[in-house]
Amino acid sequence: MAMARMLLLVAMALVGSCSAWELKIQMPTKRLQAIDEAVAPLIHALRPLLGSGGELGSRGGVPCDSWVLGVEAHNVRDWKTVPAKCEGYVGHYMLGNHYRRDSKVVIDEALAYIDTLKLSGNGKEIWVFDIDETTLSNLPYYAKNGFGTRPYNATSFNAYVLEGSAPVLPETKRLYKKLLSVGVKPFFLTGRTEDQRAITVANLHSQGISGWMDLKLKQPGFKGSAVAYKSGERQKLQDAGYIIVGNIGDQWSDILGAPEGARTFKLPDPIYYIG
Amino acid sequence: MAMARMLLLVAMALVGSCSAWELKIQMPTKRLQAIDEAVAPLIHALRPLLGSGGELGSRGGVPCDSWVLGVEAHNVRDWKTVPAKCEGYVGHYMLGNHYRRDSKVVIDEALAYIDTLKLSGNGKEIWVFDIDETTLSNLPYYAKNGFGTRPYNATSFNAYVLEGSAPVLPETKRLYKKLLSVGVKPFFLTGRTEDQRAITVANLHSQGISGWMDLKLKQPGFKGSAVAYKSGERQKLQDAGYIIVGNIGDQWSDILGAPEGARTFKLPDPIYYIG
User: Which superkingdom heads the taxonomic lineage of this protein's source (chains A, B) (predicted)?
Assistant: First the structure.
């Protein structure tokens, strides 16, 4: 009897979750309300964990958590889309507390590193920030577009960027403010293009990010890899006498290629890969 | 009644696990019997998951799974010991199927990469392998010594190495055999010292690893970092006309520093850090 009742409750819970998914009802849970308001609007209802996106991800084939680790440690490269069966795993990772927790460890390391620096305070010390999935989050877009399981759609993604509504990543904001407070100048280096400058600046400002030294966007007609573009720009900074004390991005192409910066930080991003 | 019986069973299971831990009883479970015999002798009974090493690790402080990700993505550096509260998490990770699953994704990527190579077959193509935690596993030692939570003890660790009993890591063995079959020569480059050559060769042979091109151990009196040592040796190989088509290790210091090799692979190791 007790067992029958328990099964009924489980079944009711499942039905409830499935309906929420189909109807795209968005409702914050009690636990998520504790997270900064900045990320609260990102909450979406997802398929229940008992579906294809269990704790360990797929049954059979590549386990989704091992795949994500492979991506983060730069073993899995040049992938075009998240494995279809990992949509649930990646969705729960990004929308639940896991992504935030993993990001916090990265930022805590960065803050501890800053505390060890003997800064000259001469204004030449800079920190390079990527923008997408490093400073601003495009999760509201990806949550509606399969969490990276669908091929990149430049049209719809650029339409989202032009809304200028991307929320700041709260852990990165913590790093940003710390750097300003100790006199290290933030420098944005992004794969966004020059024509997106105005909306990008407006988006950053609206999220409480300001006071950067410069914002470098990709110029029209640039051909070459992300590594070539970004390391080339860092070289120019170094040649101009700047000291890159830190460099943070969500892609390995943000932080590979000399000069990398005195110390690099890789934020999690299991949604897309830029080589 | 059903609930009371269930609680009794849970309590019995917990008591059973605790006793097994204290008595150091080693017994393979049904699931683990399915894994290669090579790793079966490594099974140890651990504290039950309800203790300090839950699925996500510690309550309060740094979450153990996020800490491990930070280590693997090279955000967490220069650490001396695993956080004490993560002993349970790391122990379960290493002894359960998780470590193996994560390693398999790395090796699957390496095998897929090899299939894309156009090999010349001129005998100059090599693959650099680290030994400890890359080819041979010291898990039998670490399982008895706190899974990296205790400071490195050179005396007891070297005594373990001199037993020559370290099991091969089955995923790496798969890569090793594939390379031999396609004519790429394995080259061992290890932080083990020259005086450990005989036992290292014997240990590798006893585990079915043979046919390597060369085995380079650290020479007496070498001063310098692991990165300086290993990249210096790779430079010598390149200067001698060898092409390093791949390089695999468990430490970032195995794979950083030019020339890195055409492609690098980072196996998991949440137990120790070599800078």
Answer: Eukaryota
